[in-house]
């Protein structure tokens, strides 16, 4: 797909990986970009002509209304976290926290359910999972369960929506506003979280966005997962 002149809708497009994707789509000449989140007014440094929309991926009626108004479009990305994430050992885990981690999957599946109809036949969807999906380290069981479900969902739905394409990008540890830590504490967290990786540093949101752009531009891939993880899966 040549992104120039295309219309793109990016859920979670106001921060981190989604925001980097918005910027790359703009640089590649997308003619219309809509960035969506619950609090889009918080965004900083977004290209002027990107339309900001306030919407929760868990709000099914809001999504139906939004997509009804859009007409046809070419690119649909969802990198919205959806809600809180549970970390830590499963046997000590608050089960509500575990279940709530699946808000990410419900957000992704809502957007595919209500957005695919108006996606053009040569259009493309990209979702974002995470490395624990296929190599779960201690403490990451909730993220592993949800990420695995996201990847299975995309593999399954790819057949149903063909020739429209859907792919997943799976990031390792990425330095984004998702982590509230600051200063030395932040640096130490990323050092510890990545020290056993083949590439022992946190990735950047731009590096993950490059994977998303690849999934959009390459017309020969669907139903697959692209890992952008510093070698997490091998460590
Ligand atoms: N960063 C990492 O290390 C890492 C690793 C593996 C996987 N991932 C995955 O990569 C994706 C992007 O993460 P990120 O690091 O870029 O996070 P981020 O910087 O926190 O950005 C998340 C974005 O999603 C939006 N969002 C969250 N919940 C939403 C909801 N219910 N409805 C609409 N928008 C919502 C946020 O805006 P509002 O708060 O304004 O709604 C924000 O724009 C997530 O799926 C995450 O699980 C991240």
What features would you highlight for this structure?
alpha/beta; Rossmann fold; binds NADP nicotinamide-adenine-dinucleotide phosphate; 7 helices; 235 residues; globular; seven-stranded parallel beta sheet
What does this structure look like?
It is a single chain. By secondary structure, the protein is of the alpha/beta class. It has one domain (7-228): Rossmann fold, CATH 3.40.50.720. It has 7 helices and 7 strands. Helix 1 (16-27) packs across helix 7, helix 2 (60-70) runs parallel beside helix 4 and helix 4 runs parallel beside helix 5 (141-161). It is globular and about 45 Å long. The protein binds NADP nicotinamide-adenine-dinucleotide phosphate. NADP nicotinamide-adenine-dinucleotide phosphate binds at residues 11-12, 14-18, 37-39, 42, 56-58, 79-83, 104, 107, 128, 130, 171, 173-174, 176-178, 205.
C-alpha Rg, in Å? 17 Å
DSSP summary: helix tally:
7
Structure summary, number of beta strands = 7
What are the distinct ligands in this entry? NADP nicotinamide-adenine-dinucleotide phosphate
Order of helices and strands: EHEEHEHHEHEHHE
Assign a percent range to the helix content: 25-40%
Low-confidence stretches: none
Mean pLDDT: 97
Seen as an oligomer or otherwise, the chain set is: single chain
Overall geometric form: globular
CATH homologous superfamily classification: NAD(P)-binding Rossmann-like Domain
From the coordinates shown, what is the CATH architecture?
3-Layer(aba) Sandwich
Could you name the CATH class?
A: Alpha Beta
The total number of structural domains is: 1
Structural class comes to alpha/beta
């Amino acid at each position: 797909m040549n992104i120039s002149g295309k219309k793109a809708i990016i859920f979670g497009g106001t921060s981190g990986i989604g925001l980097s994707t918005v910027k790359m789509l703009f640089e590649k000449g997308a003619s219309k970009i809509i960035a969506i989140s619950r609090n889009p007014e918080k965004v900083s440094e977004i290209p002027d002509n990107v339309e900001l929309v306030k919407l929760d991926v868990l709000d099914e009626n809001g999504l139906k209304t939004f997509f009804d108004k859009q007409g046809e479009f070419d690119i649909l990305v969802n990198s919205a976290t959806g809600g809180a994430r549970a970390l830590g050992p499963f046997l000590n885990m608050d089960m509500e926290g575990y279940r709530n981690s699946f808000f990410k999957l419900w957000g992704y599946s809502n957007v595919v359910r209500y957005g695919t109809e108006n996606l053009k036949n040569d259009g493309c969807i990209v979702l974002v999972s995470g490395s624990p999906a296929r190599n779960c380290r201690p403490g990451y069981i909730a993220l592993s369960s949800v990420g695995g479900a996201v990847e299975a969902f995309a593999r399954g739905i790819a057949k149903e929506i063909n020739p429209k394409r859907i792919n997943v990008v799976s990031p390792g540890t990425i330095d984004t506003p998702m982590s509230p830590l600051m200063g030395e504490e932040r640096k130490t967290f990323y050092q510890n979280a990545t020290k056993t990786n083949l590439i022992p540093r946190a990735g950047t949101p731009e590096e993950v966005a490059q994977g998303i752009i690849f999934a959009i531009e390459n017309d020969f891939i669907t139903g697959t997962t692209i890992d952008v993880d510093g070698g997490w899966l091998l460590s």
